[in-house]
Amino acid sequence: MVTYSVLGSVVSELVGDSGHDVTVLIPDGQDPHDFQPSARDIETINNADIVISNGLDFEEGLEDVLASAIENGVSVYMVGENITVQRDPMKTTLKKTATITAQATHTYGFHHCRLPKHSLR
User: Model confidence over 70-90: pLDDT tens digits?
Assistant: First the structure.
């Protein structure tokens, strides 16, 4: 399970043709900052093998739900905790380098999958 569609696209690429579905929680067009999960959404999160979220206060309405899910043993991977912003001393622009590593549970059949590093200038 992922929290929003951009993460859904990335995780779908990682899962590939393995036969596993990627569920997107927040509907397209819904502001992730304002999203409030329903009781069914909370149940889905608590029953997920893994939840991948942006973190960094992006999904503000999910913070307590995700914290509770972690306490209940759900694997939650927060992408924002794995982004490093670096200053290139030879240039005045900032370079963002993000590596997303998915360490899924046994049901996904992929371990330590890594997307290539991308630099945004």
Answer: 999 999 999 988 877 666 666
